[in-house]
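Archive entry: two folds, one per protein. Generate the first.
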Amino acid sequence: MNEQRTNVRCKTRAASVAALAMTLAGAACAQQPYKVEVEYQEPVRNAHYPELLYWFVTPETLQNRQYARDIQHIAHDTTFDFPFLTARNGVDFTTPDAHDGVKQLVALAHQNGLRIGATLHIQDTASDHAISVDDQQTVISDGEGTIDTNGHTLVTTSIKLRSAAPKHTELLRAYAFGKTGDGMYDPATLTNVTAQARIVPSAPGTLTVTFDLGAASAGKTVFLMAETWFNTLDMFSEAYVRTLHSAIDQYRDVGLDGTSLDEFGYIRVPMTPTEPYRGQFAGKAFREQFEKTTGLSLTQTLFDGRYAPEGHPEVRIRAIDTYWDFLRKGPLAIEQEFFRYSRTVFGEKNFAGIHNTFHNHLTNDEAWATGINWWTIPRQYGMSDEDLSLPMRMGLLVAHPGNIMYDQFYGFDIPRFASKALNDARFDARLHYHGYNDTGRWGADLSKDAFLTSQMPVERKIRLLNQFDPAAPKLPLLIVFGMPALLNWYPEDHARNAFDINGSLGIEEKAQAVWDAGYRCAVIPSDLIDNGAVTLNADHLPVLNGHTFRAIVYLDPQYAKQSTLNFLDRYTLHGGQLMMEGKATRDFEGVPVDALFHRIEARARVNHFSVAELSKLGVVPSPLAATGGELEDGSIILTDLASLESGKPKAFSVDVSGHHFRGEYMGVFALKADAKGTVEKLACGGCSRLQRDGRNILTLQHATDLVLLRRADGSYHAVLEAKDGSDRITLTK
């Protein structure tokens, strides 16, 4: 570490500056000599934010201590400093051999300056062993038939899941009734006919039942529900928590730095169903907790979610909403307990990972897998995978404590890693690289030179941004979508998609259109209003986790909870800028809300979705939409891949805090300045000079990577990428 001092003498119109290393911009004439520290690093070290890597632990990794060679490679030939282990190709982390191998691996990694996390697949662990019937998850399927003139009918129902085979199927309930319309029945005709059912022997997962109900029942509908058991744990069972604790306890002596559940959720439904998926999760513990929590019968609720008495649509609305609301609590509760117990065992600094996005869209099988709890799972940083759109990921960022977020990314197109990493860096997004020693199933092997030669120069530039420690992105627009409207299509049958949710809303497409038009935004579900995470500040602006937004676009308020409607009422009452897409005729309980919604609607600035009319909300597109991103504290980030690939610096011209800055950079540039134009923070790849308002304020003897940070006492700390102290930097007022 070299300390360089400079004296500043006052002159009539300008400060005459002589610097061996640096003179602080904006210094008052009477100020004492500046204390300046310059640190030379080769290469520039990482700071503040981990550089995440997914590392496959295969039999080959553990054999002959291959991991020792891998650790040397990761620690000394890559930028990665925090690999997460995941068992692959037959390795089982619950076995003694795997435990011992991982323990040795972690110890050696620590000696080489790496932190190590581990993904514990408790779902797989739970299904590998025989599970008590009382602890098994079940799925309810249904079917119906019409009674013929002789009083007979035959009804068949079946269920098929993606990740497990059915073990056993039983009839749960059967009703006969006079059908009055689609999903409606005459309540005077409803009869429980379960006792009259005659079971036809069938394979597990299928139930065929015959009924002989007499000629008087001709024309009625028979509706039945069957329950199928699977050898996987009911998420509401105490056995699930015991399994979770056991998986963590096995590694108490290992000293892990992080733990994760990867894509955690329920047993998997078909990803591309050949026919619409209409099953519903249940189980003994599921049922007990549902009935304890809601005060309702689960069986009755499932029936009400399929049929409502004539003239009472609120029965079906409430049943669908209530069931989904409870089902979504299962994965979230396990995530919360995993987070809590991991920190109990490994300490409060245990890194919580990874993402629980599964197939990364709102209208596929995601709801049945993870419950779409992306924004509410406990994490230091928002996390996603597989290229979730930026407006969705910005919602994950602002919903979690950290100022950045991670997107786990993989693929065979190596150049795409570089373009994605630099584009995402404009908005404080980082890649969680997947995966080291990938054999080709998921993508490129990130341990190979073909990848490292392309990507390491990019990550070395992003390290400058990590040292810059950016504020959160400036996101003036909050896009909120109604979770109940997404999960409850009723009564719009045309909107009911293959996964039994509303596939007609186009939430992701609308958010992307807003982003593509240059309006920086964050997408969140109405959950965050209902749980109190989104509040209104003294200026009646929406605030989430310390982030303030100028306006709200609310998509699809149908069946919103009263807490959401009341929030929108208060927001618009005080002049809140609102664009409302869709109408709410009833709330979460199915109760009409016409008067309340009409008040909200009357105050909204725009009552339909329109990118062209976003300006009516008092927001404007980002001036850096094509080149970079703005941050909440007024600083900016610019990135450019072509300069790195060509070796030719990129010229820039940008306004920051009312001052005009010009210069050149390679790869990344970030700047924070105060109202006087004084540089407070600077990160610049290949930096050679910086102008402010037409004057040179910074020059370097040689173009190099630079991070410059102003201290509280007015002095600066600079990091230059150099092997020794031969490079010189001058910063003037």
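Generate the second and append.
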Amino acid sequence: MKTIRMSSTKRFKVLTAVCMMAGIVTAADFSWLEEPVNGNWNTTDTNWSGAGAVWKNAGTNNADFGSSDTQSITADAVTVNNIAFNADGYALGGGSLNLFGNITVSDASHTALITTPIEHSATDLVLSKLGAGTLVLNPTGAGVLNNLASLKAAAGILHVAGGTNLLTFATVSPSAPAFWVGGGTLVVGGGLLKTTAGGHSVVGYGGTLLVTNGLVDLTSTGELLNAYPGGSSGGGTTTVGGNGILDVNVLRIAQLFLGDGSQNVININTGGTLRLDKFYIDASVLRKGKVNFNGGTVVPKKNDVNFLSTGVPNWAGIVANVLEGGAVVDTNGKEISIKQSLLSGVTNDGGLTKKNTGTLNLRGANTYNGGNFLWAGGLNITNDNNLGAVPDSPATNVTFVGNSTLLSGGSHALHTNRTIRIPQSVTATFNTQSYTQTVKSVIFGEGADTTLAKQGTGMLELDPGDASGFSVGTLQAQAGTVHVRSGSNFVTIASGVPRVSGLCLYGGTLLVGGGVLQATGNGGYATIQDGALIVTNGIVDLSSVGELLNAYTRVGSTTVSGSGVLDVNVLRISQHMWTISNNVVNVNTGGTLRLNKFYVHTGYDYKGLVNLNGGTLVAKTAMEDFLGDGDGQWLTNIFVNWVCS
């Protein structure tokens, strides 16, 4: 069969028809000899039959390569219309090809390799890969590249294996794009494939884009349209994996709304990277399609509250699956929202991994079961189900792999089965913002060099019931309130440096309303700086700590009341020389303060206030200076109020 050559001004309108008639020609046809005199394609050697024994450069001449004992061909700079490979194993290198037509590899068992650069002399031409076979493009050599107006994988496999491949056609019509996967498969296994001139990029007509290595840069085009056009002729699959990078602006998941959406698929597989501004559909109609998160990394390039779904009903036709490799999001310093529900697509999916600075807001009713892994930045949730399925029994479900933050975008409670893990040398920050977050699960710090920090003006409630609560090296209340309501809770660091003590209220409030909070390290300090310790119930056991520093260099207060018990060795009333009212110890009705003695450093003019208001002081050892030294000197600026109760 021969190919009909259409004029370049009409090609974008009739290319589909031309593709179907690959092999039918009316121009001059040159056929490579079965036994050519050599392997050179030039205008001097007699290696051809048909239109002539010697090749003639013309944009209307077609080259046909069939069975031959010479399949390794070196070309001079030649001009050609269509090229057809009708036998397996051809390799074409050498000088550049000034191409006016298409390239056909006829049989599915055939592969042809072109390493010579291809050039389009007219800016509206299309290089279509036709036939069921595989065409490999790999322009080789310093400064060598394929410079094409438009490239279309129309049938079979088009494999870009390496080199630089530029697509320069500018159009606003998605029916005539520069980047065009239209019925065939485009595999990018290396090098650079890049558009330069705007318009759209298209994967449609049942075609497949597979990026396994190298870089596909479509950032000059407004959108990559997956599954274009609508109707029965649509459908498309875009896959990135291996070491491949796909860089787009907007990725339109589906331009097709017929069927069950299985024709419209985005796969983000292990090793691959998808860089984009956002996912998109035309939300005014019901579109159907799938996004499969399977170990590849999604990198947002802009802040967007509608990164995946706007939340309108017509997004319900898009299914977002989390597969074995998991959903990996590198927020790249940006803030994005995924409102689409992330569903478990397999029995044991890989969960969600959040990397890099920036914030990922999860807003869907997610069902993935592989847990959550926070490497850096912030993960913002408004509801327990944003973290995926609840384990059937207590199991690690949230891991702070690196220093990172779990933010609250609304008041909620985390299920008791969601065990939270903090590995060695990691700070896990809970930022409640202005909300209340209740954690009913175990928080397990793997070693002394772990930190649980509280930020935000709201409240973090730790309420595991009778189960173990948290066990960390350091607990820091930096803002708002940490409310320990139940459980057995342990802080293990005993530091001789107050600012890095195991229990450090640096700007926040620690409220113990139940359970046990115990320091297990020997010596050192517990520090209240610009914060407050309030014990209304339960036990705070700091008896292994050398001193509880109230108002360390700044404001601070310690209060015990209700049925609360505070057990310390030495309670330093004040390390502050400002106003007395800022440095307060309250022992209120029902509360019990157990201690060896009160203390201030006599070398400074420290000020403070002790209010004895119905609570009980228990002296744990005989001390002549339990409250003041032998001459009462350090009580000069320490006021003790005996309040009638």
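Annotation attached to the second fold: The radius of gyration is 36 Å. Residues 11-20 form the longest helix (10 residues).
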